[in-house]
Automatic annotation (TrEMBL):
Pfam families: ABC_tran. It comes from the Bacteria. GO terms for biological process: phosphate ion transmembrane transport. SUPFAM superfamilies: P-loop containing nucleoside triphosphate hydrolases. Keywords: ATP-binding, Nucleotide-binding, Phosphate transport, Transport. InterPro entries: AAA+_ATPase, ABC_transporter-like_ATP-bd, ABC_transporter-like_CS, P-loop_NTPase, PstB-like. PROSITE patterns: ABC_TRANSPORTER_1 (PS00211), ABC_TRANSPORTER_2 (PS50893). Coiled coil: none annotated. The lineage of its organism: Bacteria, Pseudomonadati, Pseudomonadota, Alphaproteobacteria, Rhodobacterales. This is Phosphate ABC transporter ATP-binding protein. GO terms for molecular function: ATP binding; ATP hydrolysis activity; phosphate transmembrane transporter activity. The keyword ATP-binding applies. Residues 18-260 form the ABC transporter domain.
Length: 265
């Protein structure tokens, strides 16, 4: 049923990149994430799956403190990135988000040129000393996002003039331009057609050579194709977490089994 062979399945002994313990998220009185413990590996694609409203995006946003921007959101527990608490008062969320990049559901390029979209982060974080270095970062990022060949002759045209799939790859280039260590992707293909989806999925597979990638997806086929680890959420709980093969072929919890077989969700 699921194509479980496309992504390399042998998850070798990877370092733990993110370690969450006893994470709770409340929106006002609503308890949206309940006591979540999870260890996310480096150089691995981890998929978050589960029915609508189960908390996938909420938990994803905890990792780079995007929930800080929602006034009614309250977070408890601990999330360590390379052993350091991302909620420590000394952590600057802007710096954190350069290290933990994010790609959203709808491509959201800035109303700027293709070049300036990618150069934006490196400029504000002072990652280049001169124009030549900045050019290099822009080219490398666009190559990394498998977009360079399509845009190299029109770098100074607006990013918003690209197709949806190209815009999403531009957003991925923008995210990788600040040399992040983790890439969070919240349903990155939901606005894309099948061809653009397949290009972005291939890209995700390449990105894990350098990053820890966490992807929220509604498509179980996509989770099976791109991830090596899968976490199944249900009603705010992390019900089951394991290798993608195991989750899809031998789930241990009846709720996981019901979801992957289409009985809930
Ligand atoms: N900004 C917010 N304010 C109040 N409640 C919210 C907010 N964002 C999410 N919630 C609630 O928290 C719960 C989890 O939502 P979340 O968006 O994280 O789920 P999800 O699994 O990502 O859903 P979907 O698959 O539909 O995107 C839901 O009950 C939702 O209504």
């Amino acid at each position: 049923m699921y194509d479980i062979n496309r992504a390399e399945r042998a998850v070798t002994q990877q370092d733990i990149k993110i370690s969450a313990s006893k994470v709770q998220v409340y929106y006002g009185d609503k308890h949206a994430i309940k006591d979540v413990d999870v260890e996310i590996l480096d150089k691995t694609v981890t998929a978050f799956i589960g029915p609508s409203g189960c908390g996938k995006s909420t938990f994803l946003r905890c990792i780079n403190r995007m929930n800080d921007t929602i006034p009614i959101a309250r977070i408890e527990g601990r999330i360590l990135l390379d052993g350091e608490d991302v909620y420590d008062r000394r952590v600057d969320p802007v710096q954190l988000r350069a290290k933990v990049g994010m790609v959203f559901q709808k491509p959201n390029p800035f109303p700027k040129s293709i070049y300036d979209n990618v150069a934006y982060g490196p400029r504000i974080h002072g990652l280049s000393r001169n124009k030549a270095e900045l050019d290099e970062i822009v080219e490398k990022s666009l190559r990394g996002a498998a977009l360079w060949n399509e845009v190299k002759d029109r770098l100074h045209e607006p990013g918003t003039g690209l197709s949806g799939g190209q815009q999403q790859r531009l957003c991925i280039a923008r995210a990788v331009a600040t040399a992040p260590e983790v890439l969070l992707m919240d349903e990155p293909c939901s606005a894309l057609d099948p061809i653009a989806t397949s290009q972005v999925e291939e890209l995700i597979d390449q990105l894990r050579e350098n990053f820890s990638v966490v992807i929220v997806t509604h498509s179980m086929q996509q989770a099976a194709r791109v991830s090596q680890k899968t976490a199944f959420f249900h009603l705010g709980n992390l019900v089951e977490y394991g290798s993608t093969d195991d989750i899809f072929t031998n789930p241990q919890d009846s709720r996981t089994e019901s979801y992957i077989s289409g009985r809930i969700g």
